[in-house]
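>> received
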Amino acid sequence: MNWFQRVNQSLLLIGDFVLFYGALALTLYIRYGDAFYGPLLEIHLVPFTVMFFVWIVIFYIAGLYDFYAAQSTLELTRTLISTILIAGSIAMGLFYVIPSFGITPKTNLLIFIGIFTLFEYWWRKSFNTRITSIEAPYRVLLIGQGQSVDAITVSLKEAPHRVYQIVYSMNGLDDPEFNHLAQIILDKKVNLIALQAHIKKDAHAARKIYQNLALGIEVINLADLYETLFKRVPLAELEEVWFLENLIKQHRIYETIKRPVEAILATVLFIILSPLLLLIVLLIRLTSRGASIYTQTRVGGKGKQFTLYKFRTMRSDAEAHGPQWSGKDDARVTFIGKILRHTHLDELPQLLNIIKGNISFVGPRPERPEFVEELKHTIPYYEIRHLVKPGLTGWAQINYRYGSSINDAYQKLQYDIYYLKNRSILLDIAILTRTIKLFFINVE
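>> returned
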């Protein structure tokens, strides 16, 4: 995270705090007049503060503190309203489930949500306008060529960006313009150079760039810029040393608490959802021949194989001729199977796999041994995805369309590696939240 992002995220957070307590004070003044100050305010302060910290987490997950890409008024309105509706519903639940707060929040909470929504919309729109009017702080010189460079160039030209602006690009060391690097930096007011790793290793290039450090420029790997923009790692730019530098981080606290929390949560969910699970079992049995639960061998963490449980969505003879890639409009899928796949309800039996410790809630998608064997000889670094346990959902699943080809596997691996590098409790929560959001979109 760069200084520009840190400063502006801090401003957004401080602004939200001010608006939150301002909206609370105004709500109590509307309800009780001058009597709101004192004991009445103190009674409301604790529960509303608890609620606000919950809201901050929801706002973060919804992307309201991620301002890399400029937002239109429509996008801002849609995101803000949907997020406050979700946050407000959770607040209602908190206040009514925990009555010991000692307040009757129904009317107060509704008034507060209305006032806060108006204030927050004004604040966010004003902030959005101010940020958009400011020239991107990083004026970028790209040095390199290939798919990653082309993707960055197209992305930043098609949509305005709040942090990065490409002001010049050159193909590499053989580009004649490289000999005039200092003049280009001065003329274009470059303050950030993003270059491919192999160029950075070249002694002549390193010397040339070093000579210009006094001009106040920063130098980063092009792969890092790509990752920041697209939230995936450019596979074509990676070498073995990249994995040694980026995937050796210890996540001891995260790994220690993840397993017991997931086991408890999966058990609770399995019990709560058991009526739905039984209903799905019945529907499958009534509409097609064969077992309702489908078992399949998959490759898990550290390459260990395990038995995966899913609801059967295909005909029982679907693989009579051996393993096959499953397509989006696969003719082998049954009528009930189409519904289960569309809503992802076919994945629910994997709660048993989480309880057993085969998989996690979040991680790379577990693949079949036959496909893993094929893909590891076709896609570079494919086996690195087995560094962690696979997941019921994952960064690749929520960011990339349903795919069944080698190219799709290549694209999804870039998201999987991003997850491996950045995995954390907050990222897991964000993935789970977006998964739930996508579930309701699919249901609709």
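>> The first strand starts at residue 138 and ends at 143.
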